[in-house]
Design goal:
heterodimer; A: about 450 residues; alpha/beta; Rossmann fold; 2 domains; six-stranded mixed beta sheet; four-stranded antiparallel beta sheet; about 25% helix; about 20% strand; globular; B: about 325 residues; mainly alpha; two-stranded antiparallel ribbon; 2 strands; about 0% strand
């Protein structure tokens, strides 16, 4: 019996169209627009001005406080503007637009493919390196990684968990990374282990990626304290709390963090970025992105410079299909729709999915909840989505707090499972925002 | 690339599950029992079933169209299920106009007066059945005998149900060894060779339906299994104390409406709890009340009342019995 998390979960069709497509390098666009807020926390502060020449890997916006991240130029060229651009949220957000000239990298960045295994720096020096490189969680949450690596006094991390689950349908960037960059990944894990002082590192991978599991099991024998675990396929296993429960049977308490149960979770993409930052001196300027969807001519996985317009990625995959109705940044369960394909790829873009018009609109909602309980059975947090939905519709927000709405991670399993097609998560999000506002008001 | 794109919050995909698919799977699950009842009760079963289904669909349509003035939703299959289950709860020789009254009460009072599908606190078919049982006690407790009344409707040959025979016998002071000669064997009970309402008789056909409901994930096992377990445990204790004054647990499981009630009526989504913990409380309650009515009550059978009584507790159960939240049992160690 394979490990998995016990409570809730759903089984969306996997649709991993691009799983067998090796990672290709996306050609450079004419210009990139790099938003200064690509992470959770305070936006970075630009340190370049219009007209400045920049090189790849040069710092262009500086981290602003503890929960923030540096931003580096992903290309070489001239800063064309610091004006806000339409990003993938559909709103205008401050960004640095750079017109590309050549491909000049900063000195000290090792661009060879040699795997450098020896870790010479101390734990403190490693954290500084990771912080400087502007690394954030590349699974999609974009939480600054150095914050997760700073173990507070009195806490101890005995197990490091590496997230290779990729439980969202369609996405294959982590899968390809595990197949093609296994040694780099292992060194990255050794770096993280050293920083955290963890004795063991467990890599969790869903059993629909058997080639990756076999490959990593094989490669990991050369590295002490790294174990690979296949997991039973179930969404949302890539959720931090679910993965911890699945692998080491510990439950992160409500409102708590993984570190409260002696662990830290990092995505495989993040771990590779850590390797590159520490061992190769390369800041986070590019990432692997899956471009896929029904009707896409050549679904694939590309190494993309941050700030590249999503339209370039679509072009590489064979262009925008005739009947495209929806473009999703991320997976189909938790991704966000974008309203313009000119929005840039950011640190959090794990994939871009094109949906045909027929699949773009939601099915018609039935007039009423039939109280079947499928949402309750699907919720991995043990909440009652039907109830939260009702309370939010009736604006009884004060009753939503004791029903633990703040534990909702918006995985979408409830809406996915609802036979009446009710927009459960829409109302729960609304209620959650109101409850967070109430909590903030109480604190101040 | 200046195309207008759909913008919507996640998730962007759906399981494909729908209310009507669930309802039609219930209909499919009822099909084996329907086939069996047509075999045993023939004509009468056919007439009662058709009248019940047609009137339930018709009243739902009329009420939605002309009284509530909303778009009729009879195609969702829920009125069809109510019609079938109501018919399954009636004797096969029930005059057609009583069936029609049962359908009006089930759909009109049991379902629509509360706002339609999803809002009714009580199982509509059972509301209809219990109304008829109280209003037409003679008609509702004359049970045609299987097979011999196959070709007749109103003038079918009738007889008592095994539960009624046991109740009467024990009431007279007979022992179970005497009574057991007048009732069918366990095997006959399992195959449905007994008097009873038309859908409750054949345990094996209902169990096939149960398996179908589990396989298609329409219901979970919790409610039926908790009811069965409670009935077996409760009647088992009584039987062990005095096997001459109490029927054995298997007899209780195979007779009356236990199979039909536990598998198809207690599991009605709208009127049962939302998650396993609540389902267990609900099922144990139904099992206890059923046995209490059967053993000490005035009626030989009690599962209809038991389900209705426990239906009334469902809002309370949902309000106060919460699923185990993630991260509940662990103390924060920081």
């Amino acid at each position: 019996m394979l490990k998995t998390f016990p409570k809730g979960g759903v089984h969306p069709a996997e649709k991993k169209l691009s799983a067998s497509r090796p990672i290709e390098v996306l050609p450079l666009p004419e210009q990139v627009s790099i938003p200064i807020a690509q992470h959770i926390g305070t936006p970075a502060t630009p340190v370049v001005a219009k007209g400045d020449s920049v090189r790849v890997g040069q710092l262009i916006a500086k981290s602003n406080g503890f929960v923030s991240a540096n931003i580096h130029s992903s290309v070489s060229g001239v800063v064309e503007s610091l004006d806000p651009i339409l990003d993938s949220s559909g709103y205008k957000k401050p960004a640095i637009t750079i017109k590309i000239e050549g491909d000049e990298w900063m000195e000290g960045i090792d661009r060879t493919a040699d795997v450098k295994k020896e870790i010479s720096l101390s734990a403190e020096e490693l954290i500084v390196k990771i912080n400087e490189a502007g690394i954030v969680g590349l699974g999609g949450a974009t939480f600054p990684s150095h914050v997760k690596l700073a173990v507070p006094k009195g806490k101890k991390v005995d197990v490091l968990i590496i997230n290779g689950v990729e439980c969202e349908p369609y996405l294959t960037s982590d899968h390809r990374l595990m197949l093609e960059k296994a040694d780099e990944l292992m060194v990255g894990i050794m770096v993280l282990k050293k920083v955290l002082g963890a004795e063991r590192a467990l890599i969790g991978i869903e059993n629909n990626k058997r080639d990756a599991i076999a490959h990593l099991k094989n490669v990991s024998t050369g590295y002490p304290g790294i174990e690979v675990y296949p997991l039973r396929v179930k969404y949302p296993q890539g959720g931090e709390k679910q993965l911890i429960k699945a692998l080491i049977k510990r439950e992160v308490p409500s409102g708590g963090l993984p570190i409260d149960v002696g662990t830290v979770v990092h995505n495989v993409g993040t771990t590779l970025a850590v390797y590159e930052a520490v061992q190769k001196g390369k800041p986070l300027v590019e990432r692997i992105v899956t471009i896929t969807g029904k009707g896409v001519k050549n679904p694939g996985n590309y190494l993309v410079r941050i700030g590249t317009p999503i339209s370039k990625l679509i072009e590489a995959a064979g262009g925008l299909p005739e009947d495209v109705g929806k473009v999703v940044n991320g997976g189909p369960m938790m991704g966000k729709t974008i309203n313009s394909v000119e929005a840039p790829v950011t640190k959090g873009t794990s994939g871009v999915i094109l949906f045909p018009s027929k699949e773009s609109l939601r099915g018609e909602a039935q007039p009423s909840c039939i109280r079947c309980g499928k949402c309750v059975a699907a919720c991995p947090m043990g909440l009652e989505p039907y109830l939260l939905n009702q309370l939010a519709q009736r604006r009884l927000y004060d009753r939503m707090e004791p029903e633990r709405v703040v534990d909702c991670m918006e995985c979408g399993s409830c809406s996915f499972a609802c036979p009446a097609n009710l927009p459960l998560l829409d109302y729960i999000r609304l209620g959650k925002a109101e409850v967070f506002a109430m909590i903030r008001a109480r604190k101040s | 690339m200046n195309k207008l794109l759909v913008v919507s919050p996640s998730p962007h995909t759906h399981s494909g599950e729908s209310t009507s698919r669930l309802m039609y799977n219930v209909v499919l699950a009822l099909a084996p029992a329907l086939a069996v009842t047509l075999f045993y009760f023939g004509m009468g079963a056919l007439v009662v079933t058709l009248i019940s289904i047609t009137s339930c669909l018709l009243f739902e349509y009329l009420i939605q169209k002309f009284l509530l003035k909303v778009k009729p939703t009879i195609s969702d299959g829920s009125a069809l299920v109510t019609g079938l289950i109501l018919a399954f709860n009636l004797p096969s020789n029930l005059p057609w106009w009583i069936v029609v009254i049962g359908a009006i009460i089930a759909i009109g009072v049991g379902k629509m007066s509360f706002g339609g599908l999803g809002n009714n606190p009580f199982n509509p078919a059972l509301v209809g059945r219990v109304f008829l049982l109280i209003s037409f006690p003679v008609h509702m407790t004359s049970w045609p005998l299987p097979i011999e009344s196959r070709m007749s409707y109103i003038n079918a040959v009738t007889g008592a149900t095994p539960l009624a025979i046991v109740k009467e016998g024990l009431g007279k002071g007979d022992t179970m060894s005497v009574i057991s000669e007048q009732i069918p064997s366990h095997m006959q009970l399992f195959m449905g060779t007994m008097g009873g309402s038309l859908g409750e008789i054949a345990a094996f056909a209902l169990i096939i339906g149960f398996v179908w409901l589990l396989v298609t994930k329409v219901i979970t096992w919790h409610i039926p299994v908790s009811i069965f377990t409670t009935i077996v445990a409760f009647t088992g204790i009584l039987w062990l104390i005095n096997p001459q004054a109490n029927a054995d647990p298997l007899f209780h499981l195979l007779t009356g409406g236990v199979m039909l009630g536990a598998i198809f009526m207690a599991t009605d989504y709208v009127t049962s709890p939302m998650h396993p913990k609540g389902m267990w409380i609900f099922g144990v309650g139904i099992g206890l009340i059923t046995v209490i009515i059967r053993v000490w009550g005035a009626y030989p059978e009690g599962i209809s009342f038991a389900i209705l009584i426990m239906n009334a507790f469902v809002p309370l159960i949902n309000r106060y019995v919460k699923p185990k939240r993630f991260g509940e049992e662990v103390k924060k160690n920081g």
